[in-house]
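Same chain as my last thread, 665 residues:
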Amino acid sequence: MKYGFYTKLAFTNIRKNRRTYVPYVFTCILTVMMYYLVRSLSVNPGLKEMYGGYSIASTLRLGTFVIGVFALIFLFYTNSFLMKRRQKEFGVFNILGMEKKHLARMILTETVLVTVISLGLGLGSGILFDKVMFLLICKLVGAEISLGFFVSGGVILSTVKLFCGIYLIIYLRAVYTVQVNDPIELLRGSSTGEREPKTKGLLALAGAVCLGTGYGIAVTVKNPVASMGLFFVAVILVIIGTYLVFTAGSIVILKLLRRNRKFYYQPRHFISVSGMIYRMKQNAAGLANICILCTMVLVMLSSTTSLILGREDMIHGRYPNDFIIHSDRSVADQNERLFRRLEEICKEEGISTENKVEYSYLLFMAEQQGSWFETDEQKLHIERDFSKFCSLFFIPLSDYNAYSGEKQVLEGDETLLFSNYEPYEKPVLGVFDREYQISGYLEEFFGNGASDMNVITSYYLVVTDEEFGRLVEISSGNGEESCAEQVYYGFDTPVSSKRQEALEDRIMSEMSGGEYGDDFETHLETRVENRNDFMGIYGGLFFLGLFLGVLFIMAAVLIIYYKQISEGYEDRERFEIMQKVGMTQTEVKQTIRSQVLMVFFLPIVMAGIHIAFAFTIIKLLLAVIGMVNVKLYLLCTIAAFLVFAVLYVIIYSLTARTYYKIVRR
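reply #2:
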């Protein structure tokens, strides 16, 4: 056969199977475009010219890896729908005299056509929208917009290599399917998987146990450090549980419904339940995939949206003042000279200062062992259980009262306590050679930014000035390497960012001038300097979250679409028989609606349950990176679910209509 014959035949096949091929090709184009965009943006030289550009580039590089892996899995998975739908067609070609090597050549031609179309249109669209996406990033992080148009030949080449490799794997899999099956099996390929599955009670129970265990981990974890490791355990358990519940648990539930005579022996329920029971094995995997994709979309959209909306709260939490100086407390004279000099510099610049904060503190790293806290580095067991580690901040009572305006009174071993994460509910706290009596719990504490954003729990203890002095002697006398004796000095300035940057330069010049001695160690932090880095990190995450969200939504839509089409063709003959024995068009439509509603909304409901149980652990993960506004995250989660639910209903309306048209024919 001439190769032109295969080209003509490939075009004919694609045209005749356009109902399934067009969505697949469209998805391939979008996937190529998204991969190119993220990859191109990650190497865009314009990122180097903006604050936080390195963080954005790193985030986008991670995104290219995720999209690349997802493209391989997703395109391979969706192509399997095409192959299953066309197995009867391949069987007919085989019976009519076309050898399997000819079928392989025909599939190769079709694959090449899809590759050329998807790469051509995908890369073209990616290049076209690349500048728009870069401008969007600039808008998100507040960077200046640069002129010029960036096109990377290396990115184009890497995109071509990746997707050519993916299409090669898809082609080899299709050829393998044709080679290992005989013509009769190919003719029956679209009808396989219809045998009624057995009730698998143990697997259903295992699925319930996995879900319960994953949910239990998610809602009981309290420590942010522990949440980082347990999150992945919970995710794996929930994914396994989701698949088992859909594949085995759904069959158990459907058979229980079949035993309910009042429910089952109604025309629409009878057809829907009986049809779903024997076909649930192949449907369950698709439903589980939809559920997991919906959950991923909701998690990404809610978390990244809360990060971008709450970025100012995070910046103010990490940097409580516009200007912050951490200094060694042991050199009190130099500290006093520096702080007074800073006030003079502000006056010289014509800048007033507000919200001045100055206090001393001792910081110890410790391991919590019940009500006792071990600070000896030789006895710490970081490798054993890092989640038990915490920070102990000791603040003298006079400094606390001076800042808070309160008139607290403590005696001897009494202390006021505040915890930023896990509540401390014991009446005493033991450290060094003393047990401190908790005389009161503070609802809030001014902190110093860096400690508030620490991933481990921080305990703030206000002690008497005499006790604070004793702790200073203990730390210096015992040579505690885990102790930091510091002074926190901070203030705000009601001026523009540019004037703050100029003031920062003067302060840095003053601190580095050597006038305070070579042994004088200070560290300056400014909110204006670090705001751009924050914007870069969270702007990049938000941008990537939107991209991946769109990609996963597209995947869910395509799976739903193919599921409805494949079921429509399988159900058409059965409904024709039902109509011949007296079932009306109205009854057919009601039966379809009942069947679709029974399973279609199950994934989104299950995804909502996953999100509800995951709220606690995701809240802790966000706290690790500084997002502590729980109310904002809750609102973003609810909004994301409602918006996605509306989109899901629209998808249902469109796919149910397609399903009905196929069945009605």
